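for the writeup, i need someone to sanity check this before i put it in the appendix. the sequnce is what the collaborator sent (i think, or maybe the updated version? ugh). structure was predicted straight from it, no edits. if anything looks off just tell me and ill rerun, i have time this weekend
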Amino acid sequence: MTQSALRPIDEHRLARMQEFYSDVPTGDDIWFVHTVLAQCFLPYRDPKSHHWEKTNGDYGIILTSGPIKDPKEKRMVDVGIPYGAKPRLFQSYICTQAIKQRSRSLLVEPSMSAMMTELGLRVTGGKEGTINRFKDQITRFASCHFTITGPGKHGGEKYVKAPPIESFEVWFPKNPNQTTLWPSEIQLTQKYYDSLIDHAIPYDFRGLRLIQNKPRAQDIYLWMTQRLCRLNKPLLMKWQDLYEMFGGQATFYKFKEKFPADLLAAKTAYPDANMEEHKDGYIFKASPPPISKTKIPVQKPAD
């Protein structure tokens, strides 16, 4: 990964990150994600299916889409599986608020537009605007059923049914800036909250914000933040290994074509990530995490 390989957009990202990292990250910069969601990822495109499964090593995630009541037709409809960049940003938002507030009842931004701005998203109206697409993905994420799989205490595999959100009403407001129609809090399920408290990974949101519209680059970035700091020796990820982890619905050929650019985007968001190309894939080496444990601010739980 040499400087000469950078495209203009990656040069811009790297310049932004060099500017950012000249300052110590503040509490607002430090965000969190569930460790399973930094290893087993949402789809990149609409799977057009009621189920999605992703496994990485000992851990996995199973998603099952849920129904909501259509406000126009007054009937239940299946909204599908969340996919793409927006639900990834949103899941980090709710993980971050839960960890920092030490509560599963989360205070949220006063309007949908304010939340989108907090996530670094453009706010545009109309049928094809970003607001409608954001609503759609949050609806999918909020109604989705999550099952986390991992090693059991006595061998075998453990299944934890842990849908993130217990109650949420974000998708119905007609005016995204009308604060009276926006819920004042999101309620996480107890199981998801407990699992998150035990398995949260900190990262620098300034980096993720630079690649907010690139879901595969987001996944690579988050995977590197939790994996590279734990390496005791160089890790060779062959192309087949990379494809199984980050391939999504792409063909192997298309993945090999697109992956280097996504990896480069993730690298510019995480400049300390230590890696190099290999004839069979990429070698990843031990790297300092974007956020050290000594810099993590946590609010005391409310009385």
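Residues 35 and 268 are 22 Å apart (CA to CA). The longest helix spans residues 252-269.
thx in advance!!
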